[in-house]
Amino acid sequence: MKKSRIGILTSGGDCAGLNPAIKWVVKTALDERLAWERGTQYEVLGIRDGFKGLVSVDPLYSDTEGHIVSLNQDIVRTWDRIGGTFLGTSRFSPYDPENDQSKLVIENIERLGLDALMVVGGDGSLAIASRLAQEGVNVIGIPKTIDRDLVETDYTLGFDTALNVVTEEVDRLRTTAGSHKRIFVVETMGRTAGWLALEGGEACGAYIILIPECDFSMERVNELVMEGKRAGARYEIIVAAEGAKLEGGSEFVKKAGVDSFGRKALGGIADFVASEIRKGTGLESRSVVLSHLQRGGAPSAHDRRMGRYFGIAAVDLVVRGDFGKMVCYKNGRVTACPIDNILGRLNLVDIKTQYDVERYNGRRTILSQ
Ligand code: F6P
């Protein structure tokens, strides 16, 4: 029987849903019954710590530092219940202009005998995958990011679990907010996309939701807060996306500079808004930054199922020899598109149809649009 070796790595920020995807890649690739039908015996090698693993491994010598792990069904049996990624991840690009290590990565892919490389990642990691594909590597992409900002797919692994974290944490905040008559400003992740804040805010019933796609004014926020107060609210919950901006301003950043994917470290909006509410209304207000809690915890049922389907579909693409593709979920179906289609584009909230720009909240008409 023909033999074929698949490598898989997770790259960029972790999230729930990565382990289920890896598990189902392994289970599907190593399925004995399918091996006979396909006439090919697959092997799956896990590459640790994203693209860093492909730079650090020296395949000609023994891999004493464990950058590569051979995966089998016993190893991955329980992985779909567990958050994060057992393979580890990094925000590391081999195409760093100051230290381009892409040649080494391609050499190592050859030396490891990988017939296909699966990259589970967001837009930065999939852009790397696309460049490798252009250089002749047989790449398959699996979309993940709690930001859900990739185009061509209606779902990215990790989003649903993160949404549940936002909802559960705000439920918890409500009791203490009510006891003390406080305004709570809750900062969510999401970078330049407002999906997590908007859908999280809608799910938890937030009074105000600030998203990057619609610049806000503090005067309007304070006006809305006072309106709520006059209407008898004891407390309010405001959800603010980390990437939301003041009118005429720019994103709030934790520190100067960018990471190796060229991105700013966003953060600080909740503190700012809470302090401006205190100054503008005299009401007691506090900030909570959900931060990496949103990326943690066990995958939700949805992330387990989507990880499973994406993992299976990724192996289907390998079996078909259909490389340079990203698996995706579009109009209720798992399908695939050229990875290149996602380059330079982001899936953002359409404020004309999905947001109330007057009340800084979710839409109030649905059927009439
Ligand atoms: O892109 C995923 C994400 O979680 C963003 O929402 C957030 O801005 C960023 O990663 C945080 O990255 P780090 O793990 O480097 O702090």
Q: What can you tell me about this protein's structure?
A:
With 369 residues, this protein is α/β, with parallel strands linked by helices. It has helices at residues 18-29, 32-38, 51-56, 73-76, 102-111, 123-134, 159-180, 195-204, 218-230, 269-281, 301-320, 351-354; strands at 2-10, 40-47, 68-71, 116-121, 139-143, 183-188, 208-210, 236-241, 253-258, 264-266, 285-289, 325-330, 333-338, 355-356, 361-362. Strands 3-2-1-4-5-12-13 form a seven-stranded mixed β-sheet, sandwiched between helices. It has a four-stranded parallel β-sheet with strand order 7-8-6-11, sandwiched between helices. The chain has a two-stranded antiparallel ribbon with strand order 9-10. Helix 9 (218-230) links the parallel strand 7 and strand 8 (236-241). Bound molecules: 6-O-phosphono-beta-D-fructofuranose. The site of 6-O-phosphono-beta-D-fructofuranose has 12 residues, from loops.
